[in-house]
């Protein structure tokens, strides 16, 4: 049984996995420091409401400087200008030393982007908070009939019965969109209700530039987020040892029963090149895990969690790279700023 440092989320068990290894108070001006590259001159709303469905997410908010947000998060200063790094061609990039609450690189972190399957980290947060790992989930017709071209599916059939724990592994490691829908429906009855509940949950974390309409990130023009919002979600998830364990997983066998009671299984092998060893982060850093995603409109998207030799935590984000490969290449370049921030 896994136990967390904060006596919180100890209900998720990782049997079958081979692993590779707010609301408190924080001032906008003291929540974090910028050592290397300051953030672009953009604004974010801290009024406690979700951002409106318009493109004007960067409007001035005179109360922002005095609004207090969340405990123990890094809040990116708004009125600094980012240096241009020609090697980072993605629309948005963010690197935070999360142990010392320092921004090491920030580029267009409040700009609206499509997150593709990186959206699934928000679904994971909802699952860990509002479901039990031993819950039995019955796959619906809706979850088993996703027809969008290119959608990654576990292959569940209507009437299959599977544990919530196995669904989480299927969603985060295999990126199964059918697993995401099954989780959403189990928690809220429908994807629409789930998305509404999830958006409200995210606002409580300080998220203000995000609006999700589904649980998986398959493209919808009204499904969007920002690099900074993804940081807030991921930062919250890292409080759960169970989540850390799942994202480190390199191999897992999910099992379930079909409608006739016959056992089914799916062997999941991580495709994360950092975990498989086909890509190495800069010297001194160890990749713990993360989530990738890609669609035609979202481009290559990637959020990762690294630690250095002193066990300091780093959260790094690339949104809308030219490809999935490009997201990992640019991530490595982004991580070079860790050295400059020391």
UniProtKB/TrEMBL annotation:
Record keywords: Phosphoprotein included?
A: no
Domain of life per record = Bacteria
Q: PROSITE patterns from the xrefs?
A: PROKAR_LIPOPROTEIN
User: Which key words are in the record?
Assistant: Carboxypeptidase, Cell shape, Cell wall biogenesis/degradation, Hydrolase, Peptidoglycan synthesis, Protease, Signal
Spell out the Pfam families in the cross-references.
Peptidase_S11 (PF00768)
Q: Where is the signal peptide?
A: 1-31
Gene3D superfamilies of this UniProt entry? DD-peptidase/beta-lactamase superfamily
Where's the Peptidase S11 D-alanyl-D-alanine carboxypeptidase A N-terminal domain? 81-322
The keyword Cell inner membrane is annotated on this UniProt entry: no
Q: Name one GO molecular function term.
A: carboxypeptidase activity
Kindly give the InterPro entries that the UniProt entry links to this protein: Beta-lactam/transpept-like, Peptidase_S11, Peptidase_S11_N
Instruction: Give the family this protein belongs to, as stated in its UniProt record.
Output: Belongs to the peptidase S11 family.
- How is this protein named in the record? D-alanyl-D-alanine carboxypeptidase
